[in-house]
Specification:
heterodimer; A: about 270 residues; mainly alpha; MetI-like fold; 2 domains; 14 helices; globular; B: about 325 residues; alpha+beta; 9 helices
Chain lengths: ~270, ~325
């Protein structure tokens, strides 16, 4: 598109201003408010037992949900890119469900299924298994909301590389697992890594679905995002800012990993 | 020997293979020749086990291979677009089938070096496929397929993605390679010149069935039908017969069995001369002559000549 010089500059100013106003300013303000009263106060605030517990719970949930989603995501991507079966278009559409449905609704649906009065509730209670208001519920909610990322990143890569290399491996005697390990995986690894980073970011930051199923038991089912919300509601603004900053730092670290992956991915594709 | 019996294969409602039966003798270099959509690639993929037939059977060396997966058919397959393992070096590409079979490292290295020598890629061991030209990639793919010592080598339009000059070179090279490593080979191509120059047997396919099988010369000189005749070379219609344009004799004086014709156009193409003629002012015939013959006849638009078809079997009556 050919645009006059002053228009071009004008458009850039608008885009950059929008970005500053809506993204950088709020996040920057959180950082500013956090360190307003010195670093010591921040460290005290994020090393309380509640904060430490929330941090580790967030890490734990992410560490369970993301690897599971990575495996399922690759299998779904293989099914979508390579499979020939009825209902493929349906599966493809359903895969976006976690993006389309509000996280709160996802949380509620889990309560309806596993809650005390839910479908599986009585059976689970009889066997002494608690899912809702407990860590398994948080893990399920996190898996649900971060499910599509890996499949959505890997499917187009699989489509683009095609299946000739896999067929060539088969004619050379390689079985399914060997072909995946030596041919398919090396080709999709950067797409997979990118999907995993997005899943991690989403899993750490998830609030809506988790808040419905968590029950917010301090020291047990309180994740970092829930801790931020709780401190905010209790007028502990400094504490809320400190926890937010901790979340933001984790998110920035994941973003940093992402920026390192993307150039390699492009280099690999060429 | 490969035996294909009554193989059919549908994609949806489209019959890619419509009851194919074929025998490929040991050590031969057979070309499956036909236009796109004729089923030649599908037949090759059925023989490889990359597609399963709807019905019929495939035998390799007397053993039924119909339900055997490609891994255990003892085949080597070369794809039109190379299917090079992009993230592996040339060495690792060629060694792939050997490492899958868990051969000792020293043996693998020796075999890879030997094969790279055969395909003329010695010294390229540590390159990646994207550092090779198309012709080099395809030679690497051939070395990779030959490394596992296949009983059958299957080539799916192997030179189709290469430019004309490299294509001609690789054809010659394949012919020599086949004499050196005489493994039963099936080559799929839509290029009749490629089939004629490389293969010792040609299977002409059309719309999912086989039109004719034979030696290249046999097919050219005695085509079974108009399709085979037209696919293998140019055809002119002279009266009620189809003939090759170069089989028509041209005389400047009336001859027995000759038809009078008016020259409308003469095109000089180096060693050969093509002429367009009209019979009875309407029917158009094209004729191919040598440069010397054209010169002797003083062929020019407006001249009257007499055309005569050949007397042998090189004609096909119009059905």
């Amino acid at each position: 598109m050919i645009v006059e010089r002053r228009w071009r500059i004008g458009l850039r100013v608008v885009a950059l201003g929008w970005f500053l106003l809506l993204l950088l300013a709020p996040v920057g303000l959180v950082f500013y408010r956090t360190f307003e009263h010195g670093v010591g106060a921040v460290i005290d605030s994020i090393t309380t037992p509640a904060a430490v517990s929330a941090f580790w719970l967030t890490i734990e949930v992410t560490a369970i949900a993301v690897p599971l989603n990575a495996i399922v995501g690759v299998l779904m991507a293989l099914a979508l890119a390579r499979g020939r079966f009825r209902g493929k278009a349906l599966l493809n559409g359903l895969l976006d469900l976690p993006f389309a449905i509000s996280p709160v609704v996802i949380g509620l649906s889990l309560v309806l299924l596993y809650g005390r009065t839910g479908w599986f509730g009585p059976w689970l209670a009889d066997h002494g298994i608690q899912i809702i208001f407990s860590v398994p519920g948080i893990v399920l909610a996190t898996i649900f909301v971060s499910l599509p990322f890996v499949a959505r990143e890997v499917t187009p890569v699989l489509r683009e590389i095609g299946d000739e290399q896999e067929q060539a491996a088969a004619t050379l005697g390689a079985g399914g697992w060997t072909t995946f390990r030596r041919i398919t995986f090396p080709a999709i690894r950067w797409g997979l890594a990118y999907g995993i980073v997005l899943s991690v970011a989403r899993a750490i930051g998830e609030f809506g679905a988790v808040s419905v199923v968590s029950g917010r038991v301090a020291g047990e089912t309180m994740t970092l995002t829930l801790l931020v919300q709780q401190r905010f509601e209790n007028f502990d603004l400094a504490g809320a800012y400190a926890a937010s900053t901790l979340l933001a730092v984790i998110a920035l670290l994941t973003l940093l990993v992402m920026t390192r992956i993307n150039p390699r991915r492009e280099e690999h594709d060429s | 020997m490969i035996t294909v019996r009554d193989v059919t294969k549908h994609f949806g409602t489209f019959a890619a293979l419509d009851g194919i039966s074929l025998e490929v003798p040991d050590g031969s270099l057979t070309a499956l020749l036909g236009p796109s959509g004729s089923g030649k690639s599908t037949l090759l993929r059925v023989i490889a086990g990359l597609e399963g037939p709807d019905s019929g059977s495939v035998e390799i060396n007397g053993q039924d291979a119909t339900g055997v997966p490609p891994q255990r058919r003892g085949i080597g397959f070369v794809f039109q677009h190379y299917a090079a393992f992009k993230h592996m070096t040339v060495r690792d590409n060629v060694a792939f089938g050997l490492t899958v079979r868990k051969l000792p490292k020293g043996q693998v290295k020796g075999k890879v070096d030997e094969l790279l020598g055969i395909v003329g890629l010695s010294g390229y061991q540590d390159r990646y496929p994207n550092q090779l030209s198309g012709g080099q990639r395809q030679r690497m793919a051939l070395a990779r397929a030959l490394a596992v010592e296949p009983r059958v080598l299957l080539l799916d339009e192997p030179f189709g993605a290469l430019d004309a000059k490299v294509r001609t070179e690789l054809r010659e090279w394949l012919r020599v390679l086949h004499e050196r490593v005489p493994v039963t080979t099936i080559l799929v191509t839509h290029d009749q010149e490629e089939a004629m120059s490389v293969a010792d047997r040609i299977v002409v396919m059309n719309e999912g069935h086989i039109e004719q099988v034979g030696h290249p010369r046999e097919l050219y000189d005695a085509p079974a039908n108009q399709f085979v005749m037209g696919f293998l070379g140019p055809v002119s219609r002279l009266g009620e017969r189809f003939v090759r344009p170069h089989d028509i004799s041209v005389d400047s004086v009336p001859v027995d069995g000759g038809v009078q014709a008016l020259v409308t156009r003469v095109v000089h193409l180096g060693f050969e001369v093509r002429a367009e003629l009209r019979i009875d002012g309407e029917e158009s015939v094209s004729v191919q002559l040598t440069r010397d013959d054209a010169h002797r006849l003083d062929l020019a638009p407006g001249e009257i000549v007499w055309l005569r078809p050949p007397r042998d079997e090189r004609v096909l009556d119009v059905a």
